[in-house]
Amino acid sequence: MSRHHRSALATVLTTGLAAALLGGGLAASGSAQAAGNTGHSFSVGAQRAATGFWTPERMRTATPLDLTADPDALRTTAPATVPPTAVGAPTTIAPTAPTAPGHTSPVSALSPASFPQAGGPWTGGGAVVKTSGRVFFTFQGRTASCSGNAVTSQNASTVITAGHCVKYQGAWHTNWVFVPAYDNGNAPYGQWTASRTLTTPQWEASEEMNYDVGAAVVAPLNGRTLTSVTGAQGLQFNGAYNKPMYAFGFPAAAPYDGTRLIHCSGNSSKDFLLTQDHGLGCNMTGGSSGGPWFSSFDEATGAGLQSSVNSFGYTFLPNRMFGPYFGPDAQALYNKAQTS
Fold this sequence. Notes:
The protein has a single domain, classed as Thrombin, subunit H, CATH 2.40.10. 16% of the residues lie in helices and 32% in strands. The model is unreliable at 1-36 and 73-80 (pLDDT under 50). The longest helix has 11 residues, at 328-338. It has a 7-stranded mixed beta sheet with strand order 6-16-22-21-17-18-7, covered by helices on one side. It has a 6-stranded antiparallel beta barrel with strand order 8-9-10-15-14-13. The relative contact order is 0.21. With 340 residues, it is of the alpha+beta class. Strand 2 (32-33) and strand 3 (40-41) form a beta hairpin.
């Protein structure tokens, strides 16, 4: 994978062979990357091209991008890194409601499945239906997808996702858009194009699994900012381990097809193998990467505090998802994104 270490670190999990990654052409990007850990900026022309690029058919056929880790290879070849640790008291940012007229959060009469939940459609309605969405981009000239979530931010335009959903195998993704409340090729709240994507310094430099967190700042759409339309989830940094968590995403690899918001829930635990990640029993598949993990999640309102993202699974440990600990580095990324 990396120029030095990434091939040992993780492999792309797709619905088939690498050759099965579905393309459809690459829109002219017109984007520019600054040196250092400064993210990737997109020109206005690149943003227009991305909007036109993502037709309903391309969204339906985009190949899911996720990671699996090989413990033996990682032990022998991965560079030594300092894992994230809890530093200081927890920091909490509250959720915010949408302000655009006519965009109230949907409420369902159905209740979600009982806690814990290993994976199933979210039927509870509420804020998470609109803040969660699919992320689409081109990766090595081919169409691909992840998941993401709109969060409270100063610019009202910040999406949190996984690091490998903005940059992977040494290159930044292009044609990057966020589609909240994605519905089988439809974008009920529009396609929000990235003006800038960012990740942690550790992921940007060497794709270090402990720091697989990404962010995007999306451009206004029809004169509105993202979270004025969708609302925004809260966040928590340095929130500790071993607590009830809810994970959401749009898995698109079998047995899922990317058309529905799926969730898992349960008591999280700390990875006992190679990372400092949270672990959660969950059968979500490729395409769910970047979807939010919530602590203090309220099933009645669909709102909570985002504390991680879907990141990777071990090759030998099915039905278990891992997500990075939101410590000081994730908080610094969020602060950089919300002020961009």
